[in-house]
Amino acid sequence: MSADRDHITPLATAAADRPTSDEEDPNTTSTRRPSSRRRRCLICCGSCTALVAVIVIVLVIIVLTVYKVKEPVITMNSISIKNLKFKTGSSLTSPVSLNMTVVADASVKNPNAASFRFGKSTTDVYYRERVMGVGYGPPGTAGAHKTFPIKVTVDVIANQLLADPLDLIGDLAAGKLDLTTSTKVGGRATVFLIIKRHADVMMNCSFTVAVSNMSILDQSCNQRVRL
Ligand SMILES: *[C@@H]1O[C@H](CO)[C@@H](O)[C@H](O)[C@H]1NC(C)=O
Ligand SMILES: *[C@@H]1O[C@H](CO)[C@@H](O)[C@H](O)[C@H]1NC(C)=O
Ligand SMILES: *[C@@H]1O[C@H](CO)[C@@H](O)[C@H](O)[C@H]1NC(C)=O
After folding, report:
1. Which residue ranges are recorded for the region named Disordered (predicted)?
2. Which of 44, 96, 152, 226: CA 20 to 30 A from 132?
3. How confident is the model at residue 65 (pLDDT cuts 50, 70, 90)?
């Protein structure tokens, strides 16, 4: 009960105690000092404990909020091929040349209550482990629980870029091209205006293009997020 009262009026008690104990003569103070010091100590300890408790609670709230930042989810909505053209036997140094446009229609979903700012996205198109073209998507912001589109068009001009043109000739003869796209985008969620949480999202898609009609026969994607 007395501890409770100390808690409620620590400042008033301290202010009332201090002048009287200072003005009193040494004899009386020697008998009163220990209890008043103990009381001051209790008040001080109480305030310190309360302050520490408040700081701990605030830190826990911040940590929980920041750790609750969920990973953005990247989705490949569709991949399409346009303007697929190829020539064979044009010359001995480049016996085959192939041009096409890869349109990768992807999006990033922000599952958080805080908005996510995304930087420029990069999409590389690979054919047999070699980069055949690169496309960039614009930066932007995905609001809370919103989806951010990252549609990218990549022009592929494959001639000298080919490691072994015979592979391409073989694939064209078989009527199927196996391609891979790798899309990367970095983003940042801002919590409490000052705490920033970074996330890098990467998605690779492997797909097979039917050369005759430019349709996608088979597609599989996997993604990786680094918070
Ligand atoms: C591919 O594009 C390049 C440059 O635009 C052009 O020189 C080449 O003839 C094209 N090849 C085909 C097969 O259309
Ligand atoms: C495109 O061609 C492939 C193989 O030639 C075939 O399997 C596929 O059904 C065709 N798709 C369309 C939409 O015509
Ligand atoms: C995507 O492909 C790139 C290049 O081949 C590779 O370095 C990366 O680890 C792959 N990422 C995923 C998520 O598979």
Report:
1. 1-34
2. 226
3. low
**Global pTM value:** 0.70
pLDDT at 67: 62
Closest CA to 216 of 208, 226, 225: 208
CATH for 200: 2.60.40
Q: Are residues 52 and 102 in the same domain?
A: no
Using the atom order of ligand 2, give the atom closest to the CA of residue 213: 1
**Concatenated DSSP letters for 25-55?**
-HHHHHHHHHHHHHHHHHHHHHHHHHHHHHH
Q: If you take atom 3 of ligand 3, which residue's CA is the nearest one? A: 182
Ligand 2 near 141 CB (within 6 A): no
Q: How many domains does the chain have?
A: 2
Distances (CA, A) of 201 to 119, 126, 165: 11, 18, 33
Q: Would you say the CB of residue 218 lies under 6 angstroms from ligand 2?
A: no
Instruction: Based on the fold, state whether residues 113 and 130 are members of the same structural domain.
Output: yes
Find out whether the beta carbon of 182 lies less than 6 Å from any atom of ligand 3: yes
Residue 61 shares a structural domain with residue 154 = no
Task: Kindly give the distance from the C-alpha atom of residue 96 to the centroid of ligand 2, in angstroms, as a whole number.
Answer: 23
The mean pLDDT value for 90-102 works out to 78
pLDDT single digits (tens) 112-124: 878 889 999 999 9
- What's the pLDDT score for residue 24? 47
Q: If pLDDT is split at 50, 70 and 90, which confidence band does 160 have?
A: low
**Does any ligand 3 atom lie closer than 6 A to the CB of residue 122?**
no
